[in-house]
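Hi there, hope your week has been kind to you so far. Thanks so much in advance, here it is:
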Amino acid sequence: MVSHWLNLRFALGFLAAILAYPTSASEMQRCAVDDTGKELCLLASAERVITLSPGATELMFAAGAGDKVMAVVNYSDYPPAALELPLIGSHTRVDMEALIALNPDLVVTWVTGNPPAQVELLDELGVPTFAIEPRTFAGVSSVIERLATLAGTEPEGFAEAERFRVGIAALTQQYAGVEPIPVFYQVWEKPLMTVNNEHLIGKVLKLCGGVNVFGDMQRLIPRISAEVVLQADPDAILTGSVDGVSDDQLDEWKKYAGLTAVEKNNLFFVPASPISRPTPRLLDAIQTVCGKLAIARENLARARDKLESSRENL
């Protein structure tokens, strides 16, 4: 009887273990939905990660998983540790043989930046891919958390995501109610390109009280002509440069003396890397842009005061 009872307990225990296994395996999985709406589930935390954009590289480090990144693409220059990582090409031309040889368990792609054919090839080869392109401040925090989930670095990643949320909330409150002024952001000089309001740079301008004069355009990064900029006559013109140092990118506008931004000396440079990547360094970019627009408002107010003073003296 005792032997029968022991055998029965063993059988029941074995059955329970079998039934419990799928649940346990499921709990071990790490799942997240990417920015295309595709869910990716990994059987274990990602340990061999390749990033196919500088922004993705930076976000993996922000998620606390920088030590799991094994290769990157050109211009992955932040944080400094990223400069030590092997390169596998550019975001538009990845060395697929080199990538496959590294046997990654996760490749972080850029929705609109990587050639679809290369991403499709990775999918066909069974390489786990996770596409990102946050277009809101909330999206930046979210993608940090999702990458941390896939990498198993939730404590670090979720803390950084919350720091970013708190920082955005504080800046939003700080600059709420500032005087709105028309602004043109120049992404590229030739061909002349800008951003609409759906772009994160557009959202930075709005937070700082800038009214994007091309915000309603359909394309995320539309091409425009100098004529439409002159017609819009922005109060300020901004562009990105290395470390925000003045260069010749805005010199073309100086020949239009009647352009308000030129007349009021409101041509500004901001560091290109922080403002162009959807990463926590957007907090620094916002402070810089808001500071430039504050100077623009002072220049405009000074010009108004001077005009009124001259009228009173007539």
Remarks:
- The longest helix spans residues 282-312.
